[in-house]
Specification:
- The complex is a heterodimer of chains A (141) and B (163).
- Chain A has helices spanning 4-17, 21-35, 53-70, 76-79, 81-91, 96-113, 119-136.
- By secondary structure, chain A is mainly α.
- In chain A, helix 2 (21-35) crosses helix 3 and helix 6 (96-113) packs antiparallel against helix 7 (119-136).
- The longest helix of chain B is centred in the middle third of the chain and has 18 residues, at 75-92.
- Chain B has one domain (22-159): Globins (Globin-like, Orthogonal Bundle), CATH 1.10.490.10.
- With 163 residues, chain B is mainly alpha-helical.
- Classes of the chains: A mainly alpha (141), B mainly alpha (163).
Chain lengths: 141, 163
Amino acid sequence: MLSNKEKMLIVEIWESLTPVAEEIGADALLRMFACFPGSKTYFSHLDISRGSPHLLSHGKKIVLALAEGSKDISQLIVTLTPLQIMHAYQLRIDPTNFKLLSHCMLVALSCLMRDDFTAVAHAAMDKYLSAFAAVLAEKYR
Amino acid sequence: MPENSVSADLQTGSDKMVEWTDFERDTIKDIFSRIEYDVVGPAALARCLVVYPWTQRYFGGFGNLYNAAAIKGNPMVSKHGTTIMHGLDRAVKNLDDIENTYTELSVLHSEKLHVDPDNFKLLADCVTIVVAAQLGKEFTGEVQAAFQKFLAVVVSSLGRQYH
């Protein structure tokens, strides 16, 4: 459950990160691949080495989707419908992995924002990422 | 490998030994030599109580945990956070026998404190994020992986004596 203050904080953070969407997205993905090697199995068709165009473009997509969703959290189910369909019927990524990427996204944010990634910002962002992941998995079954 | 993994456990007496690469050992020791226990500990525990408010159930005697500012400024939270870091230090000094190092602590958390072991993972994640903020860019994916492996062994050892 997100308060209005938290929603504003989340929008603020993603707005500030949109210019570096590639970098932060790629960083979060690389962390996930290093810490949870099973997640790499979904990327066997791509070059996911550090700096690769695939990794950067994929990281960017993810961050931009997160930023877009944050603009109206109450409408996540509408905003994410195309992504829901893609993940449920085409990608079929086991939803446990959403938690892993969310965690790595939080770590990436912490490394970048340092003291500015306060406990309150962390709590808000964790809640948002959980909500996002839940909506993403909704059409799975 | 016997099919019944439970009996394999009982036969060996303990879990298979955790193996650490040189990189992992060096990384873990390096991190702990660089962080300030009385900064990271309090910050991590406070963060856990804020991000996962249900964990406050174990800290009824700690006084004011009403909001993030109160939690951050609470001296009992700070003291306990530091204690936790010194507890982790024991594992750093005994990387090859973390399980036995934590036998008593595991019993304490189970039988006296009645802490759901799922909470250990929540606190571990908060420690990771606080250390990440401390080290910034130097907390690379590889460093994170080593640190998380260490915390996973700690968490598992703390949950070992529950029954």
